[in-house]
């Protein structure tokens, strides 16, 4: 019984204290403040703040944008990962390195660059304007910004799995007469599905919370291009801490539930794969 | 699978990939540089060496260095704790470390205002000791630490876990102190992931915007970080100047990415 | 081994050289700004709103000189710019502002209500504590393709208005009130005025959150064909983009009064009361008034008004204290509060 917790290595209490102190002061304390002020709001007021029309519209915009961006990035992430792992081509290292950039690039820089690029005077904005597409200051702009900042997520999840894929299995399947799509569906897809799901989840969560790049490109109009983080910012600026707290809690709870589902789905897929 | 290995298909997929990356990644970055230089080298140099920019650089670097130091100490201690010992609540602790990743930057700002702001519940304490937290550099440091919180620990934990604790246990049984074990056995194995984690944290710390925007107050020369300076300039018709300041951030991003590549190769 | 050692020293040296070069540059810039000279230096923080950036940059230089001459002490002014309401809230939340120079009186009143400055602040300085004023005008693209000459033209079907939302931007409340003032003067009926303003806001294609955002949307991103904004903002655009835009001044508009005040409790606590008061008072000096006029604000000093009369076309200006509004408290409640007239006419998107 006394062997249940093995602590042969010295420094347990020291590292425990240090870790708890850091975690407590930086993470737990402020988040508790959020919970407490959320509690103080009271249920009726909470419900009222959380379900105002403008707020509901912002949830929808955030979720819709995140879902589209996550789908686009899942498709292109898979494509990029495939290209990077299955083919050899000149400039491969460059493509691979470039993919690290969105992760490291400050969101404000991404924001002003994208807003300008897709505005009516920017290179791409001018290009798509005759098609009747408008990107900057519309919902499309939000999606573009979301796609940009989460570009590497799916690639980096899928890449290692695809790299480890055993080509002999595919060849065997091929000699057994399977068509390309059958093999993809039955052999490749199950292998990479957990990674795809995880990547999708990462992108989606990050997109929901993204603020910096979107404010520059979104136009920030209530009911049309106002995402929830921006609305939290407004509530703060209007000095409505209650409103901000309520929205923050709704967002946090939503993303926890979402992450929980994604996590379990991924676990389920991994288990099925064996 | 022959189909996907066919030359035509390969080139088609490659073309799509490059086109996508070109449109959404290369063009915006090229645009930053083009816009920054649009007013000529002289304007570029005067803007980049103006006092406001330099003060923003100072504050940003200070915030980055402080959060890196914190990350270094906390990351090693958390990785040490979570891989070398079993204790109740370990899973919870593990989950808590990851938490800052899933919190929106704006919410990060909000929770610090709720804690340390004038109406916050720690306000009385800080008013009595006359320390200004919100709308002053300390808040910027705190939020930067928060958003970079998991980076180092996340890099260290899997490496330490894969390494196992046998060596350390043997050393401990032979009577080595914690410090000796850390310095001679654990640390050498942690060098590479530690460097990677710190590089990632640097990237995030240099560019944090949303959280800092909430707590900063944007006072020129006092609480303006580089990202906030970009925003302030952009909001004041100084578009080109905003892009000039953005090149500083772009440059540091490139440096970070190159550094990370080199570290991973080693 | 030897090579590696050498490499490390070399790298360290390079870093040190770069760092010291940076330090020299920084110190030089500091000295240039005059902040690093010997002698007692006071820092004054002025929390202001978006469009005053250029004005206060110029004013701070003049004031620093004046103050050194007068008191023999150095003062450096740190300015923060942002949306007016937001700025006021940061002050309430503890942003240590010695003075506030915001877009409208209610923002300063909310700071007063938080107990940071004394009641009656608006009577402490001349002209309602608004040393410079502005008004609401229209900015159109060169040649005025929509042929807009007054408020009534904004209702044309082809007109696409860009402006800021009075709900989120304090400065934009003046825009809304200007339209209301015109409609009342024209129709003499609140009911008709409401219809007019409603029709006008139906022509708004982009309702931005802040005045500056609206300008960006109109100018940089080419949305809409008329920007309803402050005169100084419109003039600033014309200065930044010569020959591309023109200003249409309507016959009736509002007298926008950006208010200023010393934040008494902060100034007292920081021991800056004297210099903060001087900072506000000096805004009414001839020099400062001229600077305001050069930065497109309408001066309040009559001699300066006269000198710059060519720059500011005459028009009928309605004030917030006009019986149709009856002061800010009443106006806020009637028009901008939740469920107020603006909500009723602009409602759910």
Compile the SSE list and pairings.
The complex is a heterotrimer of chains A (274), B (266) and C (349).
Chain A (H helix, E strand, L loop, with lengths): L11 H30 L1 H8 L2 H34 L5 H7 L2 H4 L2 H11 L5 H6 L10 H11 L1 H14 L2 H9 L4 H30 L2 H7 L9 H10 L3 H33 L1
Chain B lengths: L1 H4 L1 H30 L4 H8 L2 H34 L5 H9 L6 H12 L6 H6 L8 H27 L2 H8 L4 H30 L2 H7 L9 H9 L4 H27 L1
Helix pairs in contact in B: 2-13, 3-13, 4-8, 4-10, 6-8, 6-11, 8-10, 8-11, 9-10, 10-13, 12-13
Chain C lengths: L1 H32 L7 E8 L4 H19 L2 E7 L3 H9 L6 E3 L3 H9 L12 H4 L2 E10 L19 E4 L6 H17 L2 H13 L1 E5 L2 H9 L6 E5 H10 L4 E4 L3 E5 L3 E3 L1 H7 L2 H9 L4 H9 L3 E2 L2 H6 L8 E3 L9 H9 L4 H6 L3
Parallel strand pairs in C: 1-2, 1-3, 5-6, 5-7, 9-12
Antiparallel strand pairs in C: 3-10, 4-7, 4-8, 4-9, 4-11
Helix pairs in contact in C: 2-12, 3-4, 6-7
Task: Explain what this protein looks like in three dimensions.
- The complex is a heterotrimer of chains A (274), B (266) and C (349).
- In chain A, 78% of the residues lie in helices and 0% in strands.
- With 274 residues, chain A is mostly helical.
- Chain A has two domains: 8-41, no CATH class; 46-273, Orthogonal Bundle (MetI-like fold), CATH 1.10.3720.
- Chain B is mainly α and 266 residues long.
- Chain B has a single domain (46-265), classed as MetI-like (MetI-like fold).
- In chain B, helix 8 runs antiparallel to helix 11 (210-216).
- The mean pLDDT of chain B is 90.
- Chain C has two domains: 41-130 and 258-284, D-Maltodextrin-Binding Protein, domain 2 (3-Layer(aba) Sandwich), CATH 3.40.190.10; 134-256 and 312-346, Periplasmic binding protein-like II (D-Maltodextrin-Binding Protein, domain 2), CATH 3.40.190.
- The termini of chain C are far apart.
- Helices cover 48% and strands 17% of the residues of chain C.
- At the A-B interface, helix 1, helix 3, helix 4, helix 5 and helix 6 of A face helix 1, helix 2, helix 4, helix 5 and helix 6 of B.
- Chain A: Its main location: membrane.
- Chain A: It holds the Pfam family BPD_transp_1.
- Chain A: Part of the ABC transporter complex (TC 3.A.1.6.1) involved in sulfate/thiosulfate import.
């Amino acid at each position: 019984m006394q062997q249940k917790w093995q602590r042969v290595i010295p420094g347990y209490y020291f590292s425990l204290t240090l870790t708890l102190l850091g975690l407590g002061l930086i993470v737990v304390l402020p988040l508790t403040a959020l919970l407490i002020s959320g509690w103080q709001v009271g249920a009726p007021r909470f419900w009222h703040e959380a379900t105002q029309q403008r707020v509901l519209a912002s949830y929808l915009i955030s979720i819709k944008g995140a879902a589209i961006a996550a789908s686009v990035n899942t498709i292109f992430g898979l494509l990029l990962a495939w290209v990077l792992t299955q083919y050899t081509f000149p400039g491969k290292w460059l493509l691979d390195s470039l993919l690290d950039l969105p992760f490291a690039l400050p969101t404000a820089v991404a924001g002003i660059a994208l807003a300008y690029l897709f505005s009516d005077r920017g290179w791409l904005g001018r290009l798509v304007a005759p098609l009747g597409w408008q990107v900057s200051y519309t919902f499309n702009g939000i999606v573009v910004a979301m796609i940009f900042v989460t570009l590497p997520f799916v690639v980096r999840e899928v890449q290692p799995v695809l790299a480890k894929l055993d080509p002999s299995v595919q060849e065997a399947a091929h000699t057994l007469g399977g068509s390309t799509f059958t093999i993809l569906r039955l052999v490749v897809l199950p292998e990479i599905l957990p990674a795809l799901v995880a990547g999708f989840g990462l992108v989606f969560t990050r997109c929901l919370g993204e603020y910096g790049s979107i404010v520059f490109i979104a136009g920030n109009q209530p009911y049309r291009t106002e995402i929830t983080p921006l609305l939290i910012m407004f509530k703060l600026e209007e000095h409505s801490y209650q409103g901000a707290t309520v929205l923050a809690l709704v967002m946090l709870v939503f993303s926890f539930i979402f992450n929980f589902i994604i996590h379990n789905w991924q676990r389920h897929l991994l288990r099925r794969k064996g | 699978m022959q189909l996907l290995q066919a030359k035509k298909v390969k080139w088609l997929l490659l073309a799509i990939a490059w086109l996508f990356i070109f449109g959404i990644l290369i063009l915006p970055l090229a645009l930053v540089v083009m816009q920054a230089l649009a007013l000529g080298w002289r304007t570029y140099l005067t803007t980049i060496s103006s006092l406001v920019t330099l003060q923003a650089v100072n504050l940003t670097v200070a915030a980055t260095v402080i959060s890196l130091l914190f990350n270094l100490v906390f990351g090693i201690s958390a990785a040490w704790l979570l891989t070398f010992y079993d204790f109740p609540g370990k899973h919870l602790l593990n989950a808590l470390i990851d938490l800052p990743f899933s919190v929106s930057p704006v919410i990060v700002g909000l929770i610090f205002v709720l804690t340390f702001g004038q109406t916050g519940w720690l306000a009385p304490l800080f008013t009595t000791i006359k320390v200004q937290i919100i709308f002053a550099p300390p808040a910027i440091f705190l939020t930067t630490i928060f958003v970079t919180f998991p980076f180092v620990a996340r890099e260290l934990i899997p490496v330490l876990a894969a390494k196992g604790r046998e060596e350390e246990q043997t050393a401990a049984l032979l009577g080595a102190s914690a410090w000796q074990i850390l310095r001679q056995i654990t640390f050498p194995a942690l060098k590479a992931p530690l460097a990677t984690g710190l590089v990632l944290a640097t990237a995030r710390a240099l560019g944090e915007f949303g959280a800092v925007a909430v707590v900063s107050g944007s006072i020129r020369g006092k609480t303006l970080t580089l990202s906030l300076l970009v925003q302030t300039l952009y909001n004041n018709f100084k578009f080109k100047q905003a892009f000039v300041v953005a090149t500083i951030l772009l440059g540091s991003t490139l440096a970070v990415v190159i550094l990370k590549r080199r570290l991973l190769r080693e | 081994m030897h090579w590696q050692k050498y490499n490390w020293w070399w790298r360290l040296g390079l870093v040190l050289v770069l760092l010291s070069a940076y330090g020299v540059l920084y110190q030089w810039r500091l000295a240039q700004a005059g902040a690093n000279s010997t002698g007692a230096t006071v820092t004054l923080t002025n929390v202001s709103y978006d469009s005053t950036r250029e004005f206060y940059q110029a004013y701070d230089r003049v004031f620093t000189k004046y103050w050194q001459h007068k008191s023999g002490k150095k003062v450096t002014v740190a300015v923060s710019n942002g949306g007016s309401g937001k700025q006021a809230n940061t002050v309430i939340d503890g942003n240590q502002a010695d003075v506030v120079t915001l877009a409208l009186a209610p923002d300063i009143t909310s700071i007063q209500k938080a107990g940071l400055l004394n009641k009656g602040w608006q009577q402490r300085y001349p002209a309602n504590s608004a040393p410079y004023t502005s008004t609401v005008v229209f900015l159109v693209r060169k040649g005025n393709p929509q042929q807009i000459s007054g408020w009534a033209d904004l209702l044309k079907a082809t007109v696409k208005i860009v402006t800021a939302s009075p709900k989120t931007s304090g400065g934009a409340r003046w825009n809304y009130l200007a339209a209301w003032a015109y409609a009342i003067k024209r129709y003499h009926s609140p009911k008709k005025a409401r219809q007019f303003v409603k029709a006008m806001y139906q022509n708004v294609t982009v309702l931005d959150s802040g005045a500056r955002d609206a300008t960006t949307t109109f100018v940089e991103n080419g949305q809409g064909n008329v920007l309803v904004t402050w005169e100084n903002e419109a003039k600033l655009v014309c200065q930044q983009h010569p020959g591309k835009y023109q200003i249409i001044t309507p016959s009736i508009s509002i007298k926008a009064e950006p208010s200023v005040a010393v934040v008494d409790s902060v100034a007292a606590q920081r021991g800056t009361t004297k210099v903060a008061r001087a900072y506000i008072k000096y805004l009414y000096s001839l020099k400062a008034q001229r600077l305001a006029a050069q930065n497109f604000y309408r001066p309040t000093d009559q001699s300066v008004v006269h000198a710059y009369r060519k720059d500011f076309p005459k028009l009928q200006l309605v004030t917030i204290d006009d019986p149709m509004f009856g002061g800010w408290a009443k106006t806020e409640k009637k028009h901008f509060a939740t469920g107020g007239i603006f909500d009723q006419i602009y409602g759910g998107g």
